[in-house]
Specification:
The chain has 358 residues and is an alpha/beta fold. Helix content is 34%, strand content 16%. Bound molecules: NADP nicotinamide-adenine-dinucleotide phosphate (NAP). One of its GO terms (cellular component) is mitochondrion.
């Protein structure tokens, strides 16, 4: 996997749409510590009434960057790299988590003592969201899920939760930067419900907070990714890999660390990323088949594929979708045959050539 991540290094970061005229409601502070240290200095604007951000030190884990970020979805794949980068520059990171206390444990070690603060919350309880946001000046939303469960629909996780966070951040009054992580290919007209929900989430966030920044990464690659690892496990277990629709769909995988860097870069800029939507793709476009070849090369197995036509792949994936809400017990999470992912992968998903629209 190392070889792959190296080959996929360096994202291309293209702003695609400025949703509204970027009128910052937050006056930029002309007094910020670290302005002469471009490597670590954050240019985060202070909100009216909040006073200046306190920045101390030369940078690094034991400094104070002035950023106090609540990172929703920090317990996931991208979260671990983002928290690491935020902690490395001396930011305090509030980590809302649900479930077991063990979920955010790996993140605690990334920052100086007391800098990573796991906080139990319930995404359906407004007060608990307010509590985890209370001390923050930055909110980053990484919450997302590419399959439905009995408890949570695509819309609730990818749209309504994002909207709720934006509403609460607006009410809070002291949130200087809000970053919403969506997905490349999200569109209200997508055949995939997940991508439609993601697009609705972006729209809702920008409606509440026009100065929010939206990041739309392509499929992310890295040690814990859910594409190459999944394929590798399948190929090792069954000695073949199903290639849905012949694997000719084009994708532009991006290295997860680059996505985390793009988010941190947006936080550290002079406010120019506020109100913008960025598509984040890797340096190369691959067909699904080419990427699978790379996976086989990495696991040192002889490539063996079984071509599954699209309608058959959908037929294999369908029973889970039909039964999900009908049976009184949880069904296994979908793996390669995820109906929504099959729909999403039916069309090419690459970074658009558009520059900034406004
Ligand atoms: N992975 C990719 O290839 C990829 C590509 C493009 C865009 N994205 C987007 O980038 C973001 C981060 O991706 P990722 O790969 O880091 O995702 P991930 O590993 O699946 O992590 C998702 C995070 O969202 C949280 N979450 C999921 N369902 C939730 C719910 N019902 N209530 C509260 N929290 C919930 C998870 O919390 P728990 O740990 O408690 O479940 C976890 O912290 C997501 O929005 C994703 O859609 C991902």
């Amino acid at each position: 996997m190392q070889a792959i991540t190296r080959r996929l290094g360096h994202q291309s970061l293209r702003p695609t749409a400025s949703i509204s005229s970027i009128k910052s409601i937050y006056p930029l502070s002309d007094h910020y510590y670290g302005g002469d240290h471009p490597r670590y200095g954050s240019t985060l604007a202070s909100h009216k009434g909040m006073g200046h951000l306190v920045r101390k030190g030369t940078g690094g884990r034991s400094s104070v960057s002035g950023i106090i970020a609540t990172v929703f979805g920090a317990t996931g794949f991208l979260g671990r790299y983002l928290v690491q980068q935020l902690a490395k520059m001396g930011s305090q990171v509030l980590v809302p988590f649900r479930g077991s206390e063990d979920n955010p444990r790996h993140l605690k070690l990334m920052g100086d003592l007391g800098q990573i603060v796991p906080m139990k919350y319930d995404p359906r309880d407004e007060n608990s969201i307010k509590a985890v946001m209370a001390k923050a000046n930055v909110v980053i939303n990484l919450i997302g899920r590419e399959y439905e469960t009995r408890n949570f629909s695509f819309e609730e996780v990818n749209h309504f939760m994002a909207e709720q966070l934006a509403v609460i951040a607006k009410e809070h009054g002291g949130i200087m930067r809000f970053i919403q992580v969506s997905c490349l290919g999200s569109s209200l007209s997508s055949p995939s419900r997940f991508l439609r929900a993601k697009a609705a989430g972006e729209e809702a966030v920008l409606k509440e907070l026009p100065e929010a920044t939206v990041m739309k990464p392509a499929v992310m690659i890295g040690t814990e990714d859910r594409i190459m690892n999944r394929w590798a496990h399948f190929a090792k277990k069954y000695s073949f890999l199903p290639l849905i629709g012949g694997g000719s769909t084009k994708i532009q995988p991006v290295y997860v660390v680059d996505v985390a860097s793009a988010i941190v870069a947006a936080l550290k800029d002079d406010g120019s990323s506020m109100g913008n939507v960025y598509e984040l793709g890797g340096p190369e476009i691959y067909t699904v088949h080419e990427l699978a070849e790379l996976m086989y090369e990495t696991i040192r197995e002889w490539p063996r594929y079984v071509n599954i036509p699209l309608p058959i792949a959908k037929a294999i994936a369908m029973p889970r979708e039909v039964l999900l809400k009908k049976v009184p017990f949880p069904l296994p999470n979908p793996d390669i045959f995820n109906l929504d992912q099959i729909n999403a992968f039916a069309t090419d998903t690459v970074v658009s050539e558009n520059g900034q629209l406004e």
